[in-house]
Inverse folding.
């Protein structure tokens, strides 16, 4: 079965639920987990705009501080379930490329990630990182919705 699960997180509520599911799956099958966050280099995506709205009351956090908070959430969830969990953050303008590369370079045999379910014109204009990962990954992808 799966031995190393990559769980990308953007800090959204749906992403946190996907982290919980990844931890639960890893605990059940004895896999280890890598929680992964991509910091956008320049332009915030739709999910990053959501992040900015979520933290509008806090004037000081940097993108790195947000990333650490998202990854700590995954570490705590994994620790509570006694699942081995590593964390990693990278900076990229193309999150899907970073996710696919991380899975390939570090021997992950499953990517478990959330899908925000953007459809119609919003999905067309903003694109779906999950859809791009599905299209480009050679590793199986489990989508949490």
């Amino acid at each position: 079965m799966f031995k190393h699960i990559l769980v990308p997180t953007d800090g959204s509520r749906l992403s946190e639920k996907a982290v919980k599911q990844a931890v639960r799956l890893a605990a059940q099958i004895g896999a280890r987990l890598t929680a992964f966050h991509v910091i956008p280099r320049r332009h915030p995506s739709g999910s990053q705009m959501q992040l900015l709205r979520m933290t509008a009351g806090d004037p000081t956090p940097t993108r790195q501080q947000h990333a650490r908070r998202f990854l700590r959430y995954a570490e705590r969830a994994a620790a509570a379930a006694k699942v081995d969990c590593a964390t990693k953050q990278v900076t990229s303008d193309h999150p899907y490329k970073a996710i696919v590369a991380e899975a390939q370079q570090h021997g992950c045999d499953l990517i478990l990630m959330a899908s925000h379910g953007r459809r119609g014109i919003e999905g067309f204009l903003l694109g779906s990182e999950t859809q791009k990962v599905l299209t480009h990954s050679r590793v199986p992808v489990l989508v949490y919705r």
Observations:
- Residues 23 and 78 are 6 Å apart (CA to CA).
- The radius of gyration is 14 Å.
